[in-house]
Amino acid sequence: MHLRKLALASAIAIMASTAAQACQISARVSVVGNEFPAIQTVGKGAQACSGAEVSTNLTADHQKINVAGMSGNPAEYTSAIIANSSIVALMNNDVIRPLDDLVAKHGKDLQKNQLITINGKVMAVAFMANAQHLVYREDVLKKTGIEPPKTYEDMLAAAEKIRSSGMMQNPVGGAYKAGWNLAQEFNNMFLGYGGSHFKDGSAQPNVNSAAGVNALKMMKALSEYMNPDFLTHDSNATNAEFRAGNVAIMNMWGSRAATLVDVDGVSDEVKNGMNIAGPMTVGGGSTPASTLWWDGWTVAKNVSDAEAEATFIAMMNGIDPAIIKDENIRKQAVWLIEGYTPTDAARGVFAAAQANTIPYPMLPYMGLMHTALGAELSDFMQGKETAEQALADVEAAYIAAAKEKGFL
Amino acid sequence: MKHSTFFWFFLPTGLAMLLFIAFPLVSVVLQSVHTPHEAVLVTVENCGPFGCKHETTIDQDATRALRDAEPLGRFVGLDIYFDRGHLAIAEVREAWVTSENWSGFFNIIGNLPFYRAMAFTLTFTFTVTPVLIILGLMIALGVNALSEKIKGLVIFVSLLPMIVTPLIGSLILFWMIDSRGILGNAIQWLAADPDLSLKASTGLTWLMLIVYGVWHSAPFAFVVFYAGLQTLPMDQIESARIDGASRWEQVRYVIVPHLMPLITFVALIQLMDNFRVFEPIVGFNAEAHAQSLSWIIFNDLGGETRQLSAAATSSMLTIFGVAILLSPVLWRTWQDFKGKS
C-alpha cells in the first residue's frame, strides 16, 4: 500500500514535471498578431504546446482584424499580440480580460516590468521592447568621410554628401507609405521637436503648431533624398531598398533591423557594411525623434475560463526564458524576458531607452489622430499644399472622427 | 398566373431578398444615423516596462451602462452625412463664401475627403466604362473573324485578365511599374528621364489605375458581345453586303444596333462596378493619390479607429451614387418597356 502510494506520487510528479516542459493545454488557443521575426518566435513557442489545437494568424494587417475577431462571443482569437498603441483599441472595445488571477497561478516567472497594468489590473504581458533608430552603411559613410549622424540635420548633410559623391542617387530610406507609416514618422519628428498631440489632458488636437510645421518641413527635406516612390514604401519595402544597396541611412524599427541582412541575396558589401546606432534628435532638441514601444500579449475576454487558462499557458511557453539561449532568437529583439543580455543588435533600442525617448501615447483617441495624420499628410509630402494647410486638415479630420466616437 | 400560385412561387425569393438585401440595408441606415455614446473618460495610473504614468482611458463600466441603456448609441440624425468626412456642408458653404474664383473654390473642395474621392471615382468610371466597351467590342469582332481552329485558344487567352483576382493582378502590375521594375524602367528609358516614377505622380497614377481597370474588365465585355455575335442574323449582313456596305458600315448599322441591349447591359454592370473601385487602389498602394468611397469605407473600418457610423454613411452615399448613375439607363429601360406593352 505504502509502495503503491509512493509509486503513484512519483508518477504524478514525473508527469507534472514533463508537463511543465512540454506544455500541456486542454483547450483551444488562437493567436492573432504582427509578423516580424520575434513575434513569429513567440507564435512558434505557443504552438509547441500539445493537448489541444494552437493556431496562429500572424499578419501585418493584424490591427484590422483583432478587434473584430475578439468581439464575438465566443471570440475567434483567444489572444492578440499587440503593442502599446494597439492595446488601446482592445481596451476601448472592452475585449480583453484582466490577467491577475492567471499571473498568480501560472506567471511566477514573469518580471514585474513585463506586467502592463492599467488602473491596477494586469491587462497584458510584455515580452519585448522596440523603437525606431538609425540603421546605416558604415562603409559608405567612411568612404565619404562622415560620422554616423546624431541629428536629422546631420542626416540631411550626409545624404547630400553621398549623393554628390555619386555613390547613391537616393541614399535616405524611410517608411513613408501614406497611412499608418507616414503618420508614425510624423509622430517621431513631432515629439523630437517637443510637440504634444493633444492639449493638456483633453482630447483637443494640438498638432497644428510650430513643432508640427517644423516636423513636416524636415520630413519633406528628407524625402528629397528618398526613392521617388516613397509614399508607397512601408518598412518591408524600405528594408528591401537597403538590402539591395540603394540606401545608406534610414530610421528603422529595432525589431526589423537586427535580422535585416540575414536573408538570401544580400551582397557581402551590404552585410558587412550595415551598422546600428541610437535614434537621432532634431531641431537642437534633446528628446530623440522616436518613440518607445513594447510588444506583449493579451487574453480575450469573451472566451471560457478553460480557454483563457490554456491561452495563458501557451503564451507563457512562447516567452519561456529558455528560448533566448538560442543566439539567433536572442538577437531578434530586445527581450524583456528574464535572463536576457543585450546583443549587439539591441544597441539602437537600448540607446533609445537611455536617451529618454517618449513612449508612444496610450490614449483612447490616439488611434483616431494617427489615422487622420496618415490620411491628410500625403498632400503636403507631394507638394500639393502648405504644411499649415495639411495640419489644419489633420485637425479637422480628427475632430470629425472624435466627435463621432464621442470623445469631443 | 393565379395570385396564390404567384405568392408561393415568389415566397422563397422574397424571403431571401428580405433577409439578404432589405435587412442589411435597414441596419446600415440605422447605423448611419447613430453614433457611439460619449466616451466616459477617467485618468488612471498605467505601468509597464518604461515606468508608470497617469493616462486617460475609457471607463468601461460607465460606458457599458450607457450602452446597455441605449444599445443603438446616440441618435444624431444626418449629422454624420453633413460632417467633414462626408458631404461637408459647413466647409463647402464656407469655401463658397470665401473663395474669389472657381479654381479657388475647387481647390478647397478637392481637399475634402468625400469630394476628392468622388473626383477620382467619377473620372475612373466615365473613362473606363466607354473604353472597355469599345475595346471589348473590338476583341469580340476580331475573335469572331478568326478560323475555328485557333478560336478556343484565343478566347481563353483574352479571358485571362478577368480570371486573375483583381488584388493579385494589381499587385503584379504594381511591381512591374515600380521605378526598378521592368515596365517602370522601360518607361524611364523611353522618356529619357531616370527620375520618372509612375507611383510618385498623381496624374500618372490615375492613368495607371484607368489602364488597369480597362485591362481587367474588357474581357467581360468581350465575352458578352461575343455571345451576342453568335445570334447575328446572317441574312441582314448579306443584304447589307449586297447593298455595298463596307465592313465599318456593317458594324455601325447592323451589328451595333443588334448588340444594343447587350451594350446597355454591360454599361449598367460596369458603371456599378467601376463606381465601387477598390482593389486596384489597395493593390497599387495608390491611396496617397487616388481614393474612392469604397476605399474610405475600408479605411474607416480599420482596426484602431473602427468608425462604424462613418462607414455606414459612406455606404449609403455609395448607394445613392450608384442610383443616380444608373437612373438614365433605368429610365430608358422603363420607357422601352412601356412602349412595348
Topology:
The complex is a heterodimer of chains A (408) and B (341).
Chain A: H1 2-22, E1 29-33, H2 37-47, E2 54-58, H3 62-71, E3 79-83, H4 87-92, H5 100-106, E4 115-118, E5 121-137, H6 138-144, H7 152-165, E6 172-173, H8 180-192, H9 210-223, H10 235-243, E7 249-253, H11 254-257, H12 268-273, E8 274-277, E9 291-297, H13 305-318, H14 327-330, E10 334-335, H15 347-354, E11 358-359, H16 366-376, H17 378-381, H18 387-404
Parallel strand pairs in A: 1-2, 1-3, 6-7, 9-11
Antiparallel strand pairs in A: 3-9, 4-5, 5-7, 5-8, 5-9, 5-10
Helix pairs in contact in A: 2-13, 8-9, 8-16, 16-18
Chain B: H1 3-32, E1 34-35, E2 41-48, E3 51-58, H2 60-69, E4 74-75, H3 79-82, H4 89-98, H5 102-109, H6 113-144, H7 148-163, H8 166-176, H9 182-191, H10 202-229, H11 234-242, H12 247-275, H13 279-283, H14 293-300, H15 308-340
Antiparallel strand pairs in B: 1-4, 2-3
Question: Could you describe the 3D structure shown?
Answer:
The complex is a heterodimer of chains A (408) and B (341). Chain A is globular. With 408 residues, chain A is an alpha/beta fold. The model of chain A is unreliable at 12-20 (pLDDT under 50). The relative contact order of chain A is 0.18. Chain A is built from 18 helices and eleven strands. In chain A, strands 1, 2, 3, 4, 5, 6, 7, 8, 9, 10 and 11 form an eleven-stranded mixed beta sheet that branches. Chain A folds into two domains: 21-130 and 292-351, Periplasmic binding protein-like II (D-Maltodextrin-Binding Protein, domain 2, 3-Layer(aba) Sandwich); 131-291 and 361-404, 3-Layer(aba) Sandwich (D-Maltodextrin-Binding Protein, domain 2). In chain A, a hairpin with a 2-residue loop joins strand 4 (115-118) and strand 5. Chain B has a two-stranded antiparallel ribbon with strand order 1-4. Chain B has a two-stranded antiparallel ribbon with strand order 2-3. Chain B has helices at residues 3-32, 60-69, 79-82, 89-98, 102-109, 113-144, 148-163, 166-176, 182-191, 202-229, 234-242, 247-275, 279-283, 293-300, 308-340, and strands at 34-35, 41-48, 51-58, 74-75. Chain B is built from 15 helices and four strands. Chain B has three domains: 39-75, no CATH class; 76-111, no CATH class; 114-340, MetI-like fold. Chain B is mostly helical and 341 residues long. Chains A and B meet through helix 3, helix 4, strand 4, helix 16 and helix 17 of A and strand 2, strand 3 and helix 2 of B. Strand 4 of chain A pairs antiparallel with strand 2 (41-48) of chain B, so a sheet runs across the interface.
